[in-house]
From TrEMBL, chains A, B:
Membrane topology: Multi-pass membrane protein
GO cellular component terms, A-Z: plasma membrane
Protein name per UniProt: Uncharacterized protein
Limits of the CSC1/OSCA1-like N-terminal transmembrane domain: 8-181
All residue ranges annotated as the CSC1/OSCA1-like cytosolic domain in the record: 202-364
InterPro entries: Csc1-like, CSC1/OSCA1-like_7TM, CSC1/OSCA1-like_cyt, CSC1/OSCA1-like_N
Chain positions covered by the region annotation Disordered: 738-767
Compositional bias annotation for Basic and acidic residues: 758-767
Superkingdom in the source lineage: Eukaryota
GO MF assignments: calcium-activated cation channel activity
Transmembrane feature ranges: 12-30, 101-123, 160-179, 377-401, 429-448, 469-488, 576-606
One Pfam family from the record: RSN1_7TM
Amino acid sequence: MATLSDISVSASINSLSAFLFLVAFAILRLQPMNDRVYFPKWYLKGIRENPSTSGPLVKHFVNLDVRMYLRLLNWVPAALKMPEPELIDHAGLDSAVYIRIYLLGLKIFVPIALLAFGVLLPVNYTGGNFSIMSLNMKDITFGEIDKFSISNVPPASKRLAAHIIMAYFFTFWTCYMLYKEYKIVTDMRLNFLASQKRRPDQFTVIVRNVPSDPDESVSEHVEHFFRVNHPGQYLTHKVVYNANKLAKMVDKKKDLKNRLSYYTNKFERRPNKRPTTKTGFWGLWGKKVDAINYYDEEIDKLIKEEKAERERVIGDPEAVVPAAFVSFRSRWGAAVCAQTQQTRNPTRWLTAWAPEPRDVYWNNLAIPFVELSVRKLVMAAALFGLIFSFMIPIAIVQTLANIESIEKVLPFLKPIIEKGPAKSFIQGYLPGIVLKIFLLILPMILMQMSKMEGHFAVSDLEARSAAKYHLFLLVNVFLGSIVTGTALEQLKEFLNKSATEIPRIVGVSVPMKATFFITYIMVDGWAGVAAEVLRVVPLILYHLKNLLLVKTEKDRDEAMDPGSLLWPITEPRLQLYFLLGLVYSTVTPILLPFIIIFFAFGYLIFRHQIINVYNQKYESAASFWPDVNRRIIIGLIISQLSLLGLLSTKKAANSTPVLVVLPILTFWFHKFCQNRFESAFRKFPLQDAMIKDTLERATEPQLDLKDYLKDAYTHPVFKGGEVALMDIDEEVDEHHLVATKRKTSRKGSQAGTSEGSPEDRTGIYAV
Amino acid sequence: MATLSDISVSASINSLSAFLFLVAFAILRLQPMNDRVYFPKWYLKGIRENPSTSGPLVKHFVNLDVRMYLRLLNWVPAALKMPEPELIDHAGLDSAVYIRIYLLGLKIFVPIALLAFGVLLPVNYTGGNFSIMSLNMKDITFGEIDKFSISNVPPASKRLAAHIIMAYFFTFWTCYMLYKEYKIVTDMRLNFLASQKRRPDQFTVIVRNVPSDPDESVSEHVEHFFRVNHPGQYLTHKVVYNANKLAKMVDKKKDLKNRLSYYTNKFERRPNKRPTTKTGFWGLWGKKVDAINYYDEEIDKLIKEEKAERERVIGDPEAVVPAAFVSFRSRWGAAVCAQTQQTRNPTRWLTAWAPEPRDVYWNNLAIPFVELSVRKLVMAAALFGLIFSFMIPIAIVQTLANIESIEKVLPFLKPIIEKGPAKSFIQGYLPGIVLKIFLLILPMILMQMSKMEGHFAVSDLEARSAAKYHLFLLVNVFLGSIVTGTALEQLKEFLNKSATEIPRIVGVSVPMKATFFITYIMVDGWAGVAAEVLRVVPLILYHLKNLLLVKTEKDRDEAMDPGSLLWPITEPRLQLYFLLGLVYSTVTPILLPFIIIFFAFGYLIFRHQIINVYNQKYESAASFWPDVNRRIIIGLIISQLSLLGLLSTKKAANSTPVLVVLPILTFWFHKFCQNRFESAFRKFPLQDAMIKDTLERATEPQLDLKDYLKDAYTHPVFKGGEVALMDIDEEVDEHHLVATKRKTSRKGSQAGTSEGSPEDRTGIYAV
């Protein structure tokens, strides 16, 4: 086990790397050539434009203004300055609520840490379990840090009452904060929805599993069904074509166009030599041809194929999938249809709110109900396999944490790794970073699995991926580290144990793994968050694209990759910190400050990123909050059960009935939250729909809704645009607005005053 | 522990008592004077009338036709003969589906028993664990019955694989049968709903938690809200008055009237002496007065008070509770309103389908949301207390089962109880019957608790009571018997055990308690069901009332108490048999035949009772089935966990991962059933509503719906009728129909032919 000095080494390494990342960021962000990497959000909003072209050429790329470098940290107050309502306006509600999770972490853990340090630390430290044994046993099992943990309290001690009382207090405090936050987020969501402008999804419902009819096409069937069952409300509908093949062609065309412009650029720079390429895979082998001509021809060929396919899809009734977007005359009609059951068979004519057009995941609209539930079962089994086959590599990694094991397996390494810094590095840094690499490739697999499950909205896909990732982190990082980390050979034995033994085993191991998790928090939390702000990968990619592909301003816009929050990865990770904080709050409170630093640092960094960088792909109006709330409650219950398991081995058996009450109460709290708040995230109240409808009829009596909705739910490939760009192009309203703004607020980023419009004013936050 | 001979004694006693009950029933039911006790359903239907008054007087009371007595069992084929569609027509869907639960028990357990007897019994019997020890240890711990149970298989034996494989088979078979049954019941429900006649609740929604408005009364507020938010659909509404005090007065008046008619009858029989009574409590003390005059005056006084109260309630705006019944122009409008959320605050304007008028529980309509959730928490805590304070008396009762304990405590009893039959009686019969008495008073308490929880439909109240009772039986009868039954002194130790140990303790004790549960099945199941058919209490009460109160035919109608199914008691008990069957199917399969006999016998008896006796208070169209399905699944999961616990002590640790899969799969099956079927029980599809609406508009264009709904949801006390009689009077349509039928089918019970209307034909089943 690691000692306190190991932890200090690790803390220094991680703080240093975090600091270096921040310094690098502070310098890089000032260079005009990186402007589009660090402030893409403002470019997308049309407020920021390319740095002025006056002055010497070098000024385009490097910032020579020395005074700027003196204010290395001036982005910090800028990131914190923007008030929340403007943040919502600027970046959307999802982002604004996302950073509230970090704030919630602080609200929960700062008071808990203060109390734990005031009460539990003295109780533990004077517990005296190791005061006698520590001399000879220290090197075998426990490190110094255990003096501050519950391990230092001898079995059957009266002192354990303090931990039980604290467990109650921590539970009530956490629930209280969760309740308050749920209430706030619910209000934010409802106000946000109420103030939204007209959007196609407000009028539209998605209907799936349209039963086939021998006499009618899908389109006729849908129209008749809704005309009959929603008379007076039905307006129009849009059938869904299976255009997956066509979408692939469009993607391929885009790729070919990129290659063409690469070679065109190359030729323009060196006009004396026509670039060549090979026709085979990735241009690596095959016949050597003139690149520009070759890709020109390929593109022409593809355009013809694409045209044929486009005609086939539209003409072929087989290409129509049994799903449709049905639009209503009013929001009220759509709200009614989305919330009611249409027929007696709950597997047919399934209606739900249509996702935003840019949120639709088109490939999955055609899956029938039975296949869906089979897919879900198969994916659940696959997830189970994935989670439990990952156990093995993780367990191997964890043995690295145990320096004694390495010496036993590879004795010749002993002289090297026994040296102070090397030993500390291996014990403090390596296990965390290897685990991290494992976890990097995982989210893509999980997203793919979610797609297989058949959800039809990107937001759903992300929510499901997040749920899977959360489960994975729970089992493999938390449970896996705790149980197998103690010793690899325990794994097999553990599998043979009765299922009822697990909480006890977990409870016992928890205090022993405190140092590992402290290291993990520093590597994954501190340094990881600092790396996020530096945006190394987008930085390199942007400059590469700029060098090879960019010709026009439009190309440069496309080369810019603002990225987004990556909800399915970041949220479950955040949950891991909540879990760790809650589990260790009663056991080893010394871990809490590390968590608090993580939350504070993350809040700062992500607030900055949201303001300046990320461009969310869709807006779900914080519909993820019930998941966040539920997962924190899961963490709370796990912390209670592990304490229960731990105390049952401390010969404090009387405590079991007292502690069993806690998870029950917590579960009741969960149910209460569900009843009180969740419907605000799942349903759309009729009164609000009616108010918006009435208002609209009064202000815009001439509105031709049918025309407005005409192309909203057309598959992106039929709009003639590029698939990948649809995310941005789709925001017709917003774009339009921005285009007119551009003229008035060209210097918005410098000249913003408090009298300006919100868009103007937001300029001042992007220093 | 009981031996096989104890069980045979118990089986004989119980079979005999069951047989005696049946003989008594067979004789009593033939007596004309008991006709209204054993065939009240037919009287209520108007098909059966008083026995003809010709012939000697004695024939009115006693059946002298000897031939009838020779066919003692001719009610059995009669009970089985009525086909299901007619049964639904005759007794309602709830009853028809209820007896399907017994059938489901047979469908599940007969194949399981066959397989268990074919495979597990030989495996266990030749296991040989006790073949050596049985000589000296038999009298201490195990009885002969254990030779057929898993206890006879030695630890770590390969034979245990048979039990695991069987556990898999039993699980899949049970789930398959559950799925099939769920599908059938769903179809039955939907067809039943589709074929129903026009009823007020089809057009009506109940809205609760109407927010108070300073400018408007509740009635105005409701009208404005629904006029605005359901334009074109809103028809009318009915506010709810807090008439609880008035209802009490009406009840009291009825009681006084009963007393008056008692004394009037008395006076008529002995005209020479005016009856007297005392004015105090129950006429036991106080001033002596002339009874008839006294009650005449009291009734007059009460009528005046009642009138004043009636006027106060209608006039006083404070007497209006913030709830209302809102009726719509169409079923479609009601379906929309019931299924949607009205406002952004999910605690206000809560809408739900209105229960049938006779199903409304008026007292609870006024409770606000926050109070509701507090009430629920308080009742949950009370239920917890109730369940765990009941542990103690049950544990005391259970020690009675252990004859050795009695001898230890009361050594002087030894010579008496050591005698063969006495010992068998004590061991085999007593524990079951004492437990039974405990359980008799419980349902009333639970119903009272459900009322406190604030449900507003009688069907909900019954469902919630059933849920509580189910939990109670699970903890106290099942777990309580298993754990504390082994030895009372283990109870305290058990409470101090870690929560994780419980499945193991349960698993180990399960095989030891097989004999106890066999006895329990015979007492509660066999004899209990037989006692049900005899209807001792209603029999006595009817004759008492007949003697004291009845003057007119209407009085006789009122004296008749058909009773109803008592869903909140019978269903959870049934579930206990499912649980026992599933738990013991792998452990001690010898218990299964007792379960099968119970289900078969219960099916027969309850089918008879439903046809001839019970008059259901309301019709929920089998809305309870999701509960039934869920509880059988809970039983299945408990059986899997207890097997898991048992095998983990049998040194068959490798089996744990294999067996852990089962509860997971079972849970997935539960979720699948929910998705596939449950909405048919909770929602009302718009298409069906639209079809019925359209049909009605076509066939009855002149229908004045407002007039039809006018008084449907008036509090019964405002209808001038008696509260208690509302249950029957409310069935206006049916009654009306029956009244016209009466003339045509006076001799329906004898002359029914297959060409007759359904009502006519049902006559032939009441022999």
